Automatic annotation (TrEMBL):
Family of this protein: Belongs to the PpiD chaperone family.
Organism ancestry: Bacteria, Pseudomonadati, Pseudomonadota, Alphaproteobacteria, Sphingomonadales
Keywords, in A-Z order: Cell inner membrane, Cell membrane, Chaperone, Isomerase, Membrane, Rotamase, Transmembrane, Transmembrane helix
Name of this chain's protein: Parvulin-like PPIase
Domain of life: Bacteria
Natural source organism: Sphingomonas albertensis
Length: 651
């Protein structure tokens, strides 16, 4: 539940299906399965509707289902085509249970130690979510309640989740940095990073290897059946929406002459004539030093140079008005500076910080502006305000209607809006039945909202952009993921079968090349004997530090070279299935970080972070052991089956 609300901030969520955590809990638990599910007892003392018991608290089947759905929706922001079946099969189900159990255990342990999470702290976290702020930029209680209703959640559930997460942060953050690593311990790791390896990498593209005879219809049917997921259209949703934009209230947003005149009178000081000055100044601790600097400046030395000669640094304020200048200096300095002529030297003047010497660099007299001169400026500003007020009024009226269970059609008719119904779209906004279809950024927030809704949910309000516009969005229909018929995708299947055969043929060529290398033939000669138009092998020399420094990660072939023994060769499939690498490691030059303080310091920091995570992991395990955790295998199997039984829709 908390994950859903945090996603409203539009922050980027990492896609780690095998283990799902929130906030700082990720630091504690991302290393692996730390809840020890396999060691838990088989559910003694757990009621039929509960999947686990954590201390005195129970994890219900419904809570686990809801959390799994919420986590899936979060990951869909990164992988729009992700469905529930894939989520569960790749570890998302176990990860969700891990997160619930761990947070419950940490909360109970924290309470037992006398820790408290105040209501005010929880209020602050809820109020700080940008998507829960209304047109005025402040937390909107009605919007919050509407989101709760749409997600079938309660305020108590959200607050409970925030409290758990806060306890987890308070308990785990201190442990992450509680590590000290000796230099001697870090030395061998630092030396390992300096190790260099030299080898040769060859590549056999699948595209240049003969793939054999054309596949038969039976071959295509077999391949299609075995890879049917590849030709399956992901879950689609038909979305109904109606936009309320500033254009629709522009007639209400035109200010009257009386409103413009009233605003001008209220802000008369803003449009009055004013004087701005550019002033350079320096503050000196003693009067004698200030007198010396002032004398030099009056004699022709620049204030900046005179200050620098005294070991000080002058500052310049450009185009500043008297009130603003007084706020940064003092009223006495401002009076003197704004009474002097251009080029005059002021001071020394006593201030709370010392003695100020200033020079008037330039004086700019800004004439006042009449009502006619600023009419357009005021009208534009008032128009924006009136437009926002009109949109806010419509927003509140629709919100009230939705709170009263009004339907999409009723809201559209009441507000005389123009309804739009999309074709069946996948989660990235594309219509898979239209080859030319592309995501429309204008409705991306509406698509995202529709894919977070469940069938039967009421319409919701979604903000659009920053001009106050919004839309009423309703889920029209969910179209489950469906395989396209073989006849419809025959060309794609034929292409994929041919590509697969070419890859397998390339694999056999790579195996033959490897066999010759292992018998002592140089890699270049072995590749040449294939008689294929393949690129020449590439010599490579790199260090472990270079690989570690690459934010994109090491190329797979290079990474494999750093796990091989010298004078050995191996093959590796290219990441994009475009062919096969043949890697030959020629030599290893050991590194020595002795005396390299920077390398040792970096190694100490890296080891320290790993040790810190280990501390947190072990602490969490001890907390679970202290609190006590039991799971109900029967209930877990039932929830897992229910989730998979939804056909991957995630609803």
């Amino acid at each position: 539940m908390l994950a859903f609300f945090r996603r409203l901030t539009h922050s980027k969520v990492g896609v780690v299906i095998t283990f799902i955590v929130l906030g700082v809990i990720a630091l504690a638990f991302a290393a692996g399965d730390i809840t020890g599910l396999s060691s838990m007892t088989g559910g003694a003392g757990i009621t039929g509707g509960d999947v686990a018991k954590v201390g005195k608290a129970e994890v219900t089947e419904n809570e686990l289902k809801t959390q799994a759905q919420t986590q899936l929706e979060g990951f869909r922001q990164e992988q729009p085509t992700l469905d529930m079946a894939t989520f569960v099969n790749q570890g998302g189900f176990e990860g969700t249970l891990d997160r619930i159990i761990s947070s419950m255990a940490l909360e109970q342990f924290g309470r037992a130690q006398g820790m408290v999470v105040s209501k005010r702290a929880v209020d602050g976290q809820i109020a700080s979510i940008p998507a829960l702020q209304g047109p005025t930029g402040k937390f909107d209680e009605n919007l919050y309640r509407q989101v709760l209703a749409q997600r079938k959640l309660t305020d108590a559930q959200i607050r409970s989740d925030i409290v758990r997460d806060t306890y987890a942060q308070q308990l785990t953050i201190p442990s992450t940095g509680a590590t000290q690593v000796a230099s001697q311990l870090a030395l061998p790791y630092a030396s390992l990073l300096l190790e260099k390896r030299t080898g040769t990498i060859g590549f056999i593209p699948a595209a240049v290897v003969p793939a054999g005879p054309a596949p038969s219809d039976a071959d295509l049917a077999t391949f299609y059946k075995r890879n049917v997921a590849r030709y399956t259209v992901p879950e689609r949703r038909i979305i109904r929406y109606a936009v309320v934009s500033p254009d629709q209230v522009k007639t209400q947003a035109v200010p009257t002459d009386a409103e413009i005149a009233k605003t001008y009178q209220q802000d008369r000081a803003r449009y009055a004539a004013t004087e701005k000055r550019t002033i350079t100044q320096v503050v000196v601790a003693d009067q004698a030093g200030a007198n010396a600097i002032a004398a030099k400046v009056k004699a022709g030395t620049s204030l900046a140079d005179a200050a620098r000669a005294a070991g000080l640094e002058a500052s310049t304020q450009t185009g500043v008005e008297k009130a603003a200048y007084a706020g940064t200096t003092s009223a006495q300095v401002a009076d003197a500076a704004f009474a002097a002529a251009s080029g005059a030297v002021i001071g020394p003047v006593r201030t709370p910080l010392g003695w100020t010497v200033a020079k008037i660099e330039r004086i700019e007299n800004v004439p006042g502006r009449t009502l006619d001169q600023v009419r357009g400026e005021i009208a534009a500003a008032l128009g924006i305000q009136k437009s926002a007020a009109a949109l806010s009024a419509i927003h509140d009226k629709i919100d009230d209607s939705l709170s009263g269970n009004a339907t999409f059609d009723e809201v559209v008719a009441d507000q005389k809006l123009k309804p739009v119904t999309t074709p069946a779209l996948i989660a990235n906004g594309v219509n898979p039945d239209d080859a030319a279809s592309k995501p429309d950024p204008a409705i991306a927030p509406l698509v995202a909202a529709a894919f977070q809704a469940a069938e039967g949910d009421g319409p919701q309000l979604v903000q659009l952009g920053t001009d106050g516009g919004f839309a009423v969005v309703a889920l029209g229909r969910v179209v489950p993921a469906t395989p396209r018929p073989l006849a419809q995708v025959r060309a794609a299947v034929l292409r994929d079968v041919s590509a697969e055969r070419a890859r397998q043929a390339a694999r056999k060529v790579a195996a033959d090349v490897l066999a010759r290398i292992n018998k002592g033939m140089p890699i270049a000669q072995s590749l040449a004997q294939t008689k294929l138009p393949i690129p020449a092998p590439r010599p490579v020399t790199a260090s472990r530090a270079q690989i570690a420094a690459d934010p994109r990660g090491a190329p797979p072939a290079l990474a494999l070279m750093f796990s091989m023994a010298p004078n050995t060769a191996k093959t590796l499939a290219a990441p994009d299935d475009s062919g096969w690498f043949v890697i030959k490691l020629d030599s290893i030059a050991s590194g020595n970080a002795a005396g390299n303080d920077a390398a040792i310091k970096a190694a100490r920091a890296n080891i320290g972070r790993s040790v810190g995570r280990e501390y947190v992991e072990q602490f969490a395990k001890a907390v679970r052991a202290e609190v006590g955790v039991k799971t109900n295998a029967t209930s877990l199997a039932r929830v897992r089956a229910d989730l998979l039984g939804q056909g991957g829709t995630g609803n």
